[in-house]
Each structure stands twice: as C-alpha cells, then as structure tokens.
Amino acid sequence: MVELPNCPKCNSGYTYHDGNLFVCPECGYEWTLDVETEMDDKKVVKDANGNILNDGDSVTVIKDLKVKGTSLVVKIGTKVKSIRLVDGDHDIDCKIEGFGAMKLKSEFVKKI
User: pLDDT band at residue 71, thresholds of 50, 70 and 90?
Assistant: First the structure.
C-alpha cells in the first residue's frame, strides 16, 4: 500500500489522491508534492513599492508614524539601516537613531 503524506496545513492523516493532487477532507486543502517544499520557504516581505525586502537592507519611512505610548513621531524620510524581518503584523524589527528599538510595518517603508 502506498503511504500518502499528511496534510501540510492541518497535519491530518486522512488525505487521498485525486488525479495529480492530494486532498485533505478535513480542511479541504489541495496540493501537489511540489507545494510541500514551497511551504518551508520564508515569507516574502515587500515594501510599499513592491520591492522584496531582505535582512540587512536599508529603508526609508514614507509616512509620519506616531510612536505608540509617547508623543514622539518618526518623520517621513527617516532612514533605517540594517532591518531584520520577523513574523507578525509588524514585520520589520530595527533600531532607529534617536528612538531605539522599534517594529515597523513594511507597507510604510521603501527600500533604498
């Protein structure tokens, strides 16, 4: 008997083969064997212009951003060096001169 892979989304063992796809009856996910390797890849983070961001890139803030809990504002045009990509809503972890460690959303920066 052929051993079928578990579902990559919900890890269910009740998968079945349908044509050239594998199907999970529990969550309804359909995939090919090629997709299993794609799911291991890192999430792609893009800036406001659609450029792909990587760890260590330098970016510029494109909008005035209020710093939560303070009266400080990160001004438009502020340059941020050596960003680090993280998972979550705020997907950039960085240090901004004069503000310290901060998390930013990629939609409010552009790559230099």
Answer: very high
